[in-house]
Amino acid sequence: MPDYPAIEQRLYLLQRHLPEQLQLEQLLHQGARWLRCDTVLTVQHGGLPLPVQVIELGSQSRNAPVIGFFGGVHGVERIGSQVLLSWLHSLVQRLDWDEQMARRLERVRILFMPMINPGGIWQRTRSNPSGVDLMRNAPIDAIGKVPFLVGGHRISNRLPWYRGRRDAPMEPEAQAVIRVVRQRMLNAPFSLSVDCHSGFGRRDRLWCCYARSHQPIAHIAEVFTLKRLLERTYPNHHPYIIEPQSVNYTTHGDLWDYLYDGALTSHPHHMFLPFTLEMGSWLWVRKNPRQMFDFFGYFNPVIAHRQSRVLRQHLPLFDFLLAATDNWQNWIPLARQRPALAREAIRTWFTEQDQDG
């Protein structure tokens, strides 16, 4: 017999602290025909087991290109998880009637990991419940100086941006991301990831590696080509600033740097392009200064109509990136084109750094 008081208590606690989990469970039920879900980690927090889940849909062929969407690395930036759930909802609804989308998913695989840090989301903190910033937790150091504290430190887990103890294993949540990407994405001939964050500047930015170095990545020509492809395809699109993260600042321990460099060694003939969507939350604060009285308000829109706008305005970008993943062989530059494109990318990003406006 089900324990109804325990079920009701779980529903009450999740609705209060982690409503995104209830939304995800509803989507899994609605899309059960198409969605494949695995729990890759369980975090005990708030008296409940909180699952870290991976959802896949589309092709199961090893040769299919893969696009992965990640969110909730920083618990206070829960708008990232909400945007991904909005995108997943759209896909589930479209598969009921959209034959073109169904055919596309016969060729490409989509992966979602929308709540990597459920304990941090629950307690509305940047770090996980152990006080570690998961995006500073990989065992790599930046080249040169990084901004004090913000670039990652080992002083104390009472301070934000704490990397964890030196030589300690990576946090379980960070290890789960590493396993998922290595096992489910890097074997594909082409893979692309989007990690959703908020909190930097007044403009939405699409960052590529590196966070640890001002040097361009090996696939800078491909990143620059994708930037131009988006701008040509949607000349009036939502105005993203597309650039390497290091144009703004560098950090220690970035998970995507660690995964990208590892992919170059483990899968040299495949292509893995990790991106970070950094939603510019300063604009939300400027339009509603009262948000400054709540730390949560620095990273999330708190007015209903503004939240609804954010939940829908990035879906065209996700749809574009899905199409680009499906058709990657049609836009990837030829070997003879790469040197000129790399030089142009370096002139654009590393000698004419864009200022936040």
From TrEMBL:
PANTHER family: PROTEASE FAMILY M14 CARBOXYPEPTIDASE A,B, SLL0236 PROTEIN. Belongs to the peptidase M14 family. The keyword Hydrolase applies. Gene3D superfamilies: Zn peptidases. Residues 1-357 form the Peptidase M14 domain. InterPro entries: Peptidase_M14 (IPR000834). Pfam families: Peptidase_M14. It comes from the Bacteria. GO terms for biological process: proteolysis. GO terms for cellular component: extracellular space. GO terms for molecular function: metallocarboxypeptidase activity; zinc ion binding. Keywords: Hydrolase, Metalloprotease, Protease, Zinc. This is Peptidase M14 domain-containing protein. Its cofactor is Zn(2+). PROSITE patterns: PEPTIDASE_M14. It comes from Isoalcanivorax pacificus W11-5.
